[in-house]
Amino acid sequence: MDIEFIEKKFDEIYAELTREVMEIMHDESLDKKQTNLRMKPLTNTKMILQNAIESIKLVQKVGDEAIEKG
């Protein structure tokens, strides 16, 4: 499994999420409640992605260790 490739793709997704967050933050037509409601899915998505990449790395590590023990 190419962890570096996966991380690169996750970084691209993070960049897109950051762009969306910045758009929301700079939208002066939104009040605080609307801003928070629009931010929550983006924040949750980022957390899910972070957990996913950590899980993928752990699976890779365990797999590599199992192969070494043979």
Strand percentage, roughly?
Answer: under 5%
State the end-to-end CA separation: 18 Å
Mean pLDDT: 94
Backbone CA Rg: 17 Å
Count of helical segments? 2
Helix content: over 70%
Structural shape: elongated
Describe this structure in words.
With 70 residues, the protein is an all-alpha fold. Helix content is 89%, strand content 0%. It has two helices and no strands. α1 runs antiparallel to α2 (32-69). The two termini are 18 Å apart. The mean pLDDT is 94.
Produce a short descriptive summary.
The protein is built from two helices and no strands. It is elongated and about 60 Å long. The model has no long low-confidence stretch (mean pLDDT 94).
Keywords:
single chain, mainly alpha, elongated, 0% strand, 2 helices, 70 residues
